[in-house]
Description:
binds uracil, Uracil-DNA Glycosylase, subunit E, 5-stranded mixed sheet, alpha/beta
Amino acid sequence: xxxxxxxxxxxxxxxxxxxxxxxxxxxxxxxxxxxxxxxxxxxxxxxxxxxxxxxxxxxxxxxxxxxxxxxxxxxxxxxxxxxxxxxxxxxxxxxxxxxxxxxxxxxxxxxxxxxxxxxxxxxxxxxxxxxxxxxxxxxxxxxxxxxxxxxxxxxxxxxxxxxxxxxxxxxxxxxxxxxxxxxxxxxxxxxxxxxxxxxxxxxxxxxxxxxxxxxxxxxxxxxxxxxxxxxxxxx
Length: 235
Ligand code: URA
């Protein structure tokens, strides 16, 4: 088998990772779960503060900080990404790096005000590897299923408070996080998926796919077209 490239943001959830991160024993790995850290009855500000010290999985060990969601409870739309990237990890805010810039432009073109959205990620810590051959750059690694589900209680608490009219899942990982592991962004993107007792989900590509594409204009146009479906819902 040839060398494997690292998974790209939003590309999908890898199989449960083998091996244990430093400082994490077999026993503690099997207990990945953020729920003991999520305070009951908390508002967004209290959730954010509590998330700063989340130890529900090992990802906090190497990340700079928790990157919690941003926005307020009146938001009509939730934008859900996979996990913070390098810049988000440094700045402590979601979607403030290159993918965030693409997202901002696409939202504007689709007629959606980012300021009116609650922006968050399925996983709240940056997962990466450092490859010396690439100048010590921190290279994104896809979160494992276990890390995704460990972090789920934070997202559940956020969605319980924000209760948007529509949730936009950016990329395969975010889509699987809210629609289940059988979700395929390639098959269902741009479709408003209704859910019993929960806000509908519109899945689309991750904005970083635009940055990686050979034909950026076409891929970007597809993202904007999907977001226009959301803009229509909000009209
Ligand atoms: N990619 C994501 O999925 N989320 C971010 O916050 C940044 C990049």
